[in-house]
Design goal:
Blueprint: E1 3-10, H1 14-24, E2 30-34, H2 42-45, E3 49-50, H3 61-84, E4 95-98, H4 102-117, E5 123-125, H5 127-133, E6 143-146, E7 150-151, H6 154-168, E8 170-173, E9 177-183, E10 187-192, E11 196-204, E12 222-233, E13 242-245, E14 248-252, E15 258-261, H7 276-289, E16 297-309, E17 315-318, E18 325-329, H8 335-351
Parallel strand pairs: 1-2, 1-11, 2-8, 4-13, 11-18
Antiparallel strand pairs: 3-7, 4-6, 5-6, 9-10, 10-11, 12-15, 12-16, 13-14, 14-15, 17-18
Helix pairs in contact: 1-6, 1-8, 3-6, 3-8
Length: about 375
Amino acid sequence: MTESFDVVVIGGGVIGMTGAWRLAQTGRRVLLLERDRTGAEASSAAAGMLGAQLEVSEPGPFYQLCLESRSLYQAFVDELLEYTGVDAQLNHNGIYQIAFTQDEVHALHRRMEWQIRGGARAEFLSSTEVTNEEPIVAENYGALHLPDDSNINAPLLTRALSIAVTQTCTVVEGVEVTAVQRQSAAGYVISTQSQTYVAGAVVVAAGAWAQRLLPSSFPGKIQPVKGQLLAIRPRQATLKHTIFNDHAYLVPKRDGTIVVGATEDRGAGYNRDVTVDAIQYLLASVKRIAPRLCDAVFERSWIGLRPGSSDPHPWIGQLAASPGLHVAVGHFRNGILLAPVTANMLVDSVEGRPWPTHWQAFQPERPSVESGVTR
């Protein structure tokens, strides 16, 4: 028997779950379909940095979007805690972007200047100030301190969202969506291997697996980007702040571990192997950035398949050529950070409400966004 819903959300990562939860809160009957288990892929594998200022190299719409989503996070996790009893461990510890060369010092000063002009908090610390705050960091030329960037425990966040969507939506795990077809009267027919569903609106939020569900009119291409990470547990000295340098980061968690990440492999496809080269790179980054952590205990390593895109920015909103079909794809390494604001955008998209100007830069039918390109 075909079941009918107001909205079907395809994809049970942090983007899909947050969107489904918010849509259900509007009184809609929502179905969430997930090919594996909710939160099993890139969302729970993430280091959990909420680096709104760290992640963006220039001012522009993407920077505004990141700041907006970061500003929503405290209320977001507080609501999840009250609703589910799970503390996602939001850690307001700030980020130090360390300079090990004079060229890096100059680049960080330029970043600090435009961020301050835009109203954000940022300051450059001398090497002495860095050492006083973080004595285990290697000898350096100072650091850009971003006090409002923070981090979250990604596995706990996905656990909380899994509980929230289970209580407010119909959730079906372990099913592969085989087709999404438009029917003029009933909206959309969504087919899986064993079941057919009908919905007035569909949201594709399937992460690295989204491409095959998108119509030919979709202007971009979504592909997996493999990232490898590891966790260590310091024996004594540890870090207070997240430390970043040259694409490597050390993220201290409230459970006492430090997450170290991350590699970036755009040619690995859906390969899930943890490789010797990647682990060597990450451990070398620990030794380079904080050599006194070399006696830390190695806890575990893992991979995540991030949803990369042919464009450096996510695609969010309704497809003009497919009324009722909405997307939230291509978030790459910013899915955790952008989940709260993306969910708000999806609710407004499904309800047909107009968007603020800076949101419009992320609609599927959009001009190229030239500023605010992520690293």
